[in-house]
Amino acid sequence: MLFSLLAGDVAYWRVAAGRLKAGYHHWLAGRVAEGWDVHSGVLSIGGWPGAARVSVPNLTLRHVGGAIPWDVQIAAAAVDLSVPLLDPASLRISLTGPAHVRAGGAPDMIVTSEENTVSVPLLSVGRRRIELNVRNLRIDPASGDWHTTLGLLNASIDAPSLIEASQPGSAVAFSASAEAIALPALVKWPLGPNISSVTLGGSVNGPMPMTRDPTAWARAWRDGGGSFAISHFTMGWGPLGLTASATLALDDQLQPMGSGNGRLVGYAATLDKLAEAGILTKSAATAAKAVLLLMAGAGDPDQPPAVDVPLTLQYRTLSMRQVPLLRLPELDWPAH
């Protein structure tokens, strides 16, 4: 009896591994048809008894052409594809060793982490949830003159099927959280080089146009009533504690516009640092502090000052109660 169960488990594992290997070759053929140049070492299978796993060593993907906005090259020491035998509808992808990423004219970036997993549903019907979990991420340029690190990153996307995504009323929900972010020392950051935490959640609403042209996509999404809803955003960075929500869209020039509300903790010290860094003019920082002080009223003298504020973004200008805070750079959409 035990031998029969063991033999059945091995047979199930072989079938699952064979299907996973065939699925990888199908994906590979699709990328080649799209113009990608793909190379790798000899595939191997493993993972028994808990999962069917296919390991792809020395995977390199390179694309040059008009299908995507930039020339892209990705090289990974190894990529593991696995399907848990007790959850055959979920594919897990992880990188082993350093990965090199280059896009357009940007420098070659080396990405490493202690743990990284992307979970993708294999079923093509209904809503699909994709999850990313990374621990101790580090990004270095190949030149090695700076680096950035991130202690923990969790993100997820809950999307409708391709057919549902093209229909009005569809929505893609997203969430992300990150901790212990060390920014590159190459830049003098106005609020300090470390961000303690960031969380983000919301949805992209409206039909998802079936086009690869970013400008045409943005125009069709806007014309279809597309909006970007941020249900919650929190950040702790230096003296600033921020909690916010907002709804954004694109104006007739395809520039972001919208409105929201935020709760600011430590706003006075934050505005002073932004003025010292030249991000805000001193007069704008002084005006903003005066308005915020009036809005905040009397608070707890033993706590950092906090205030709830309405924010608007129009014509690339972020304003608080009609007081302009900063001018955003123009969003330049690529032609293809």
Protein architecture, described:
The chain has 336 residues and is an alpha+beta fold. It has a domain at 1-103. It is built from five helices and 17 strands. It has helices at 2-33, 162-165, 214-223, 267-276, 282-296; strands at 36-39, 44-46, 51-63, 72-84, 90-103, 109-112, 115-121, 128-141, 148-159, 171-182, 194-205, 227-237, 240-250, 256-265, 306-314, 317-320, 323-327. The protein has a 17-stranded antiparallel sheet that branches. The mean pLDDT is 86.
| Approximate helicity band | 10-25%
Distance between the termini: 62 Å
Structural class: alpha+beta
What does the average pLDDT come to?
86
What's the layout of helices and strands?
Elements: H1 2-33, E1 36-39, E2 44-46, E3 51-63, E4 72-84, E5 90-103, E6 109-112, E7 115-121, E8 128-141, E9 148-159, H2 162-165, E10 171-182, E11 194-205, H3 214-223, E12 227-237, E13 240-250, E14 256-265, H4 267-276, H5 282-296, E15 306-314, E16 317-320, E17 323-327
Antiparallel strand pairs: 1-3, 2-3, 3-4, 4-5, 5-6, 5-7, 6-8, 7-8, 8-9, 9-10, 10-11, 11-12, 12-13, 13-14, 14-15, 15-16, 16-17
Helix pairs in contact: 4-5
Quick structural summary:
The chain has about 325 residues and is α+β, with helices and mostly antiparallel strands. The protein has helices at about 1-35, 160-165, 215-225, 265-275, 280-295; strands at about 35-40, 45, 50-65, 70-85, 90-105, 110, 115-120, 130-140, 150-160, 170-180, 195-205, 225-235, 240-250, 255-265, 305-315, 315-320, 325.
